[in-house]
C-alpha cells in the first residue's frame, strides 16, 4: 500500500500506457480496491477499525515460540532453511490430520498439500479446475479473497443466497438447474460453512446434509474453506462437510487464525488425483512452500499445548463478539439488522432501506470508525445496503466505541435520507482485490 | 514425492477418471516429470547425485541465525507473526535495493515486490502477461522451473540458441523476425544472463549490449532471472541487464542461493505499472508473502556480515567447480564436451554422437551416479544428447567419484553404440515439472 501511494500518478500512467497492451486478459480484471484508500486512513490510531480481519495474536506465547524457533534452527537448521518438497513436510501433514480430526475429518497425510496460507490453496484449486468463463458457485456474500482469485482466473461467479442458517439448499438447487438449462455446469461450489466470512452465520447440521445431497445428486465438487472452524463460542466444533464426503470435497485449512498468519501455512486436503495436480501446480507456483514456516508450525504443535491456546483464543473472541452484539443491541437505530455469529470474526449488518454502505464509508471514517462496505463481498456489485463489522482485533471497549460512532453515522444518514430521499449508488463493476487488511 | 510414491496407481486412476473431465485446460499440461522416479533413487546415500540444484547451506552460521530469529520473535513477534502487505516489508525492500546495487542496479524500494522465492515472481509475471498461446522466448536450454511456469500458463516457448558466451544475438533477432513474419510477437524474453542454469555459461558484456539493443529495437520486454549473480568465481559480479534498461526489464532476485531457500524469499523489480499488477496478483495468489521469512532475511542482512558469508560461499562453490572440471578433464572419454562455468552451480555436458542422456540415466543410477537429462531443459523434447551436472551440493571428493562413475557409464554406452549402432529415443512431449530437487 505504501508503495502504491507515494509515486506520482502521471508517471504511472506513462509506464502503464507503454505496457497495458501487452498484459494478459486476466490482468485487466486485476484492479486496486476502491476502498484501499479508506483502509490507509482506517489504520490511523484515532480510528476504530471494525474493518480488518487480522487475528489478534497478542495472546501468543512469544517466549515459547522464540525458544522453539531458536532450537529449530540449532537442531534442524539445515532442513528448516533448505528447500522442502512441493507437497510439504510429512510430519506437519501428519499433524494437520490431527487438527482436522477436531472437525470430524479422518484423513491420510498423503492427501494433504501444504500451501502458502489457505489463500494459495484456493488459488491452486482454481488454477487446476477453472478455464476462463467457467462458473463457480459462491455464497452471497462471499469471501473477498476468493472473489479475487476467481476474477484472476476469469471465472464467472454465481452467488447463491444465504439466510441465518447459511447457504439455502433450495437456492443452490435452483442455481444448478438454471445453469443446466443454459447448458452450463459449475466447476465447484465454494463455501465457508462454519462462521462465515463475511456473513457471520453457520450452516446448520440439517443444511449440511441437504447441501451434500444436492452436490452428490448433481455430481458437483465442493471446495470447503474452513479457517474459523475451531473458533466457535458454543459447544463442540461443527462437523466439516469433508467428514461425510471425502471423494467430493476439497477441504482448505489454515493456521493463520489459530496460530500465526505471518508464517503463511495453510493446506488443502483433496482426493488423490486432485492432490497430484495440486502438488504439480505448487511446484510451478513456488517450487515448495517455506520449509521454515512448516517446521515452525510443526514444532509449535508438537511442543506446545496448542489446543489450550485455541481455547484461550475462543474466549477472547467470544468476549469481543459479546461486546459487539450488546453494543449493537444498545446503540443501533431500529430497522438496522445484523447476524449473531456463534464463532469466527464477523458480523454482517444490513442498513435501513435507502442507505448505502459505500457512500456512507467516508463519512464513517470522518467520524473515526471503519468497516468494509458490503459490495466488496459480491462479484456483481450487490451488497450496497450491507457492511461487514469485525470484532477480532479491537478490545471490547474500543468495539463499543466504534459501534457508538457507527450508530451516530447511521442516524445522520437516516436524517439525510428522510430529508433528501434514499441514496442510490450505481452498481460497481469488478471485484475488490482482497487487500492486506481485508482477509 | 513420498506422497506420490505410496498409494496404489489403480486407486489413483479411479479417482483420476472421475475428475479429469473437469480440469482446466492448463491442468492437462501438468504432468509429473518422467525423471521423478530417478530422483527418488538418486537421493539414496550410495548414489552420488550430480542432479540436484539445492545450495549447500552447511556453511550457514546457525548459531547466529538462531539467536537473530529468537530475538525477532521476542522483540517484533506481533509483526513477524502477523499478515504483512502484499508488496512486502518496506525495510526488506530497502535492503534488497542494496543487494541489487552489487550487480549495478540503482532501484527504488517502491518498485520491489517480495515473492515466495523468485519462482513465484516468475509465476506472477507470467500470470499478468501471458494468455494461452502467447509466445515466450527462452534460452536453449532453459531453467526447468521456468518451463514449468510457461507450460502452466499454456505459453508457447520458443528456444533461442546459446553458445559459450550465452544467448546468441543473431539467433534472437532471427527468432523475433520469424515470429513477426507469422504475425506473432513474443510477450517477453526470459533469460538467465549470468551463470546460467543449466548451461553454466554467462552472457559476455558485448552480448549484453547487443541483446539490449535488439530488445529495444523490437520493443521487447525482458524478464531477467538472476539467482546466481553474486556467486561468481572470478572478479566482480556481472552488470545486470536491468542496470542499463530500467523501463524494459523485470529483474528477478532471490535469497535462496545466497542465504536460505527454506525461507522462500525472492523478489521482482519492475517498472511501476507492472509492479502495481504484480502486487494485485500477489494478493490473490497468497494475500501476502510470509512476514516471518521477510523479517528473518531482513534481520540477517542487518545484523550479520552477509557479504563475507557470500564470499565464503563463492570460495566453497569454486572449489567444487574446480573439482568437477578437473575430474572431467581427467576422466571423460574424448568427444564428450562440457561448459566451463565461471560461477553458479552447473556444468552442461554434451555426450558423443548417438548417446541418449535419458536412456542412459537408469544405467547411471545403477552405477550410483545421478544427473539431469538434457530434455528436462527444453519445452520441445530436444536435449537428449545433453545433461546437466551440478557441483553445488556434494563435496569435492564425491564430485570426483561421481564423475568417475559417469565416465565409466559413458564408456559402456559407447561400446553399446559401436556394437549395436546409435541410440535414438523418441522426442518427448510436454515439459518436465521442476520437481523438488530440480531447481
Automatic annotation (TrEMBL), chains A, B:
Write out the GO biological process terms. alpha-amino acid metabolic process
Q: Which UniProt keywords apply?
A: Aminotransferase, DNA-binding, Pyridoxal phosphate, Transferase
Write out the transmembrane intervals.
Answer: none
Q: Where is the Aminotransferase class I/classII large domain?
A: 74-406
User: What cofactor does this protein call for?
Assistant: pyridoxal 5'-phosphate
Q: InterPro entries attached here?
A: Aminotransferase_I/II_large (IPR004839), Class-I_PLP-dep_aminotransf (IPR050859), PyrdxlP-dep_Trfase (IPR015424), PyrdxlP-dep_Trfase_major (IPR015421), PyrdxlP-dep_Trfase_small (IPR015422)
Q: What GO MF terms are annotated?
A: DNA binding; pyridoxal phosphate binding; transaminase activity
Keyword DNA damage in record: no
Coiled-coil features, chain-numbered ranges: none
Q: CDD domains, from UniProt?
A: AAT_like
Q: Which Pfam families does its entry note?
A: Aminotran_1_2
Write out the similarity annotation. Answer: Belongs to the class-I pyridoxal-phosphate-dependent aminotransferase family.
Query: Which PANTHER family does this UniProt record tie to the protein?
Result: AMINOTRANSFERASE (PTHR42790), KYNURENINE_ALPHA-AMINOADIPATE AMINOTRANSFERASE, MITOCHONDRIAL (PTHR42790:SF19)
Q: What is the protein's quaternary organization?
A: Homodimer.
Name under which the protein is recorded: DNA-binding transcriptional MocR family regulator
- Recorded source organism is Thermasporomyces composti
